[in-house]
What does this fold into?
Amino acid sequence: MSYDEPLRLPAAAIPDDCRDWTAGRAAGWSAVLPPRWTFLRVRRSIAGAVTTFAFCAGAWAAMLGGLWPFVAAGFAVYVLWVLARPELVWAGAPALLLGLAVEAPSLPWAVTAFGALVVVASWAAVAVRLRARGAQLERALEAAGDGTARVPDADAPVRRGRFLVPLGLAVLGLGVLTGATAQLWGTADDHRGSWVMAFYLAGLGATALVSAWLGRRRSVALRRTPAPVLRVLVRDDAQGTTEVYAADDLAALRPLFTVDLTSYDGDAETDGDDDEPDPAGTGNDARSDTGSDADRAEAVEELERLLDAVDDDTPGPVREAVLFGAPYDGAEVVVLSADEDPDQPPLTEWSAGPVRPLSPSAGVRRIARAKAREERHRQLETRARESAVDRTPAPVRRWRAGWLDWLAAALLVQWGVWLSWAGFTESDLSLWKLGLVTALGLYEAVRVPVKLAWRITADRSGLWVTGLRGPRHVPWDDIRSVRRRSFELKLRWRDDDWSVAAPRWAWFERRRGLVHPYDALAAELSAMRKDPALRPTGESTAPERGRPLWPLAVVLALAWAAALVLWG
It folds into this structure.
């Protein structure tokens, strides 16, 4: 979507000597970005999948091939560092090479050579990426010139890393616990597998702690002295990530980089005086309680508004902004931008994650994909609206699980049976594997009925959504969004949500002009939500709304328990 006129930032909010970061100056910055093979931008889902695969391969090699557990887990953590935290590769690569050298006499030479080749090649790629950061910083400082200013809210508490620190400590503690109890689990292979898991969890915990320290350190450094400032344009994409554009790119055609931002509410943190009791008995306590309730209600409403914006699947408006801090791959920045509400003051947001640059071609592809996705959603909703208008008004509309949902249930069952078979084929079944298989069976007993027998019924009062305890009623006014995201159909309403997942192949659907059932359902329900004239006209009956799914879940759980008893 193009915007001819961005939302203006008040002139008083723009620091003196703040230059426009024009497309010409930004082109020099983009020219020094490292090539794609340096893992400059890797999706989080891909990084997680690759890291998980490396961990599984390492655990298999440790249990069957005799690889030292520290090396097996270290390789998986190293893969995560290469893709998501390149600063740590300088310490991880030498340590991993040393471990491979120590293990070399007990491993086939091909395995050692392959591992060393992967480590050295990825180390070189990361070195190129990190070296390019200096050139990016140089070009950004040239573009800013002498324009510097103190960041807004420089004296506010530093929040960067507050989430990662407790998370890292918890995961690190879990790793220590796993290592301390490794000798209690079954066979020698189980012991080695436990140690692989222990080292892996310890590595993940340490990664989270170091990431928190790096982010906090850079955030504090940005506050200490006046930072370089640049005038830019910003826009929030459909997922809530902020895209930064050149100051003269009014049509938002080519984002320079993306960054996750979080706002700071200066009134959110007080010294606690308002919570003290009123000694004079003047009734201030009641007013304070009322104010607290109002604040909580306002916070809930604000959260709902943010979730609505994320679920809208359309990017926000282009806004004028001032960028505090020189941008480069991995940098911390502060953005002062025009608020979407013209009656509100400028919005100050701190980076909640590192700057992630986009090459010119990657930026153009990103915008093209967003426009294609937006156009596809618009076409689906238009088609759903037209079909609803042409269709004879129905008292009740119903949707239920189809063959894709049955396929998803079959895949889930097959996955569970395969894992269980792998555990039960051993002569000595350890206690932890028995507990894992039991928990897996109970999980499938809960999820499979939903996949096989979910039903959504629409009538004039709202939607009826099946669940384990029975159908739940959702009034039309409480529905927030109905969206298909990746493999998942998600229905969100006030204070709750419901979701179900099924396979999809986006490339094949585009190639054949097919519409996924979840897309069609989401489009039709979205059209009904927006236009009351398209909603059903009658009231649904109890049989039409579906039945509770818990009896089927109980049957599946009992069948699984019986199978464990007979198999064991």
